[in-house]
Amino acid sequence: MVIVSEDLSKKADHTEEKPVSISVFFPCYNEQDNVVATVKTAVEVLQSINADYEIIVVDDGSRDDTKKITEQLSQENNRIKVVSHPVNLGYGAALQSGFKAASKELVFYTDGDGQFDIKEMPPLLELIKECDIVSCYRLKRQDNIIRRLNAWCWTRLGCFLFKMKVRDVDCAFKLYKRQIFDNIKMSSTGALIDTEIIARAIRKGYKITQKGVHHYPRTAGQQTGANIKVILRAFKELFELHRQIKNEG
Fold this sequence. Notes:
- By secondary structure, the chain is an alpha/beta fold.
- The chain has helices at 6-13, 35-48, 66-76, 91-101, 122-127, 145-162, 193-203, 228-248; strands at residues 21-28, 52-60, 80-85, 106-110, 133-138, 173-177, 208-213.
- The protein has one domain: Spore Coat Polysaccharide Biosynthesis Protein SpsA, Chain A, CATH 3.90.550.
- It has eight helices and seven strands; from the N terminus they run αβαβαβαβαβαβαβα.
- Helix 3 links the parallel strand 2 (52-60) and strand 3.
- Helix 6 (145-162) runs parallel beside helix 8.
């Protein structure tokens, strides 16, 4: 029988939990009117939970002052980093850059347009202890009927093809264990990226859980995902990915 002295027991009881190690990144394209508030809110949230953190802004070839503004934020806070694409490479390419730049144990991303509230991120940290990915879904999507219908069809088709059970595969509010990205490849540079990551993670045996989060109307800037060319390209690439993964065995 092992006897622990009273002093040692008290010391063990008061051992502080290790700060969460987390990279938070925002893919941005022409978000000069949103990015400052988005980044500053992230800093406040991460400081409030005493996290070991870094914030990464991925500027995907913005034509406005997004890059200039975020580089200024980086100069003011050395935990803020900027990854810049010389030209617009696409949403998938922006996410790939964010995941590759992340250096902490966990990696979280949400869009830089302010349609999600990063204050809803901390509760995900408890969930990630029991899984590898927390994939959130929008409780009430603040988009027009066309975007909502397209998203519903996209998610249902992706779930059918890849045998996934995900409510909102493209919801830009996800938390991952970073080591996942050492073991899966990412090839999509467009809207397929979220589906590709989840599908490949499932094939590798990673565990996923889900949680609802609020979605807010865009207050500035313009959405780009509803472009018909983007949508058609994504559906084409979806079937190509299905064939590719199936052939990988």
